[in-house]
Fold:
Amino acid sequence: MNEKKTAGEKAAEFVEDGMTIGLGTGSTVYYTIRKIGERVQNGLKITGVPTSQATAVLARGCGIPLADLNDTDTIDLTIDGADEVDPALNGIKGGGGALLFEKLVANASKKNIWVVDHSKQVEKLGAYPLPVEVIPFGWKQIMKIFEEKGFRPVLRMKNGQPFQTDGGHYIVDIRAGHAGDMVALGKWLDGLTGVVEHGLFLGTCDLVVVGDGESVSMRE
Ligand code: 5RP
Structure:
């Protein structure tokens, strides 16, 4: 059973006529977007707000009308993936590098649903590398700070070049498992000059749809 598909498609059922929907990024929400696209072909009227160029291309291909975040007052619901989610529905996101736009859209949303396969559920956040989005200028200085703190930073690469986000930034993946207090870590990262955003999404998610074997479960 494809757990990403079952979770992703299930979440599309939460979309109602007239809603403005934040469209996340990744291989699980891909199925949500495809399913929403099918419903749009059958008459559902919604507006999508994409969180990445890749999602905009996918959604447009599915016939979903899109709006820019700047032209959107309120987002009724955002559906997105996650890399880790703990029992309190805190998570790590940004494995696909879209964390900055994802967080902006999530923060503008009345409700956030995450779609995951069962492997994403963890007791404690931090085994998955935490993405930190940094400005390209002086990125090595930030790496130094992370190294001194024992975060074993790695600059994310693609085709032999630094991976560039849709916002034109770099991603440094850090090992945050030993940090313990993720709220404190998030605040520390928020205050670091040159850090644009990080993949700790704390208190953002309202409902997780989990694909687990043959079934789908919900946690809120
Ligand atoms: C992209 C993300 C994704 O939602 C996250 O990486 C999960 O992706 P997938 O559903 O492909 O496992 O945060 O920035």
Q: What stands out?
A: The two ends are 24 Å apart (CA to CA). Helices lie at 3-11, 29-41, 53-61, 99-107, 139-148, 182-190.
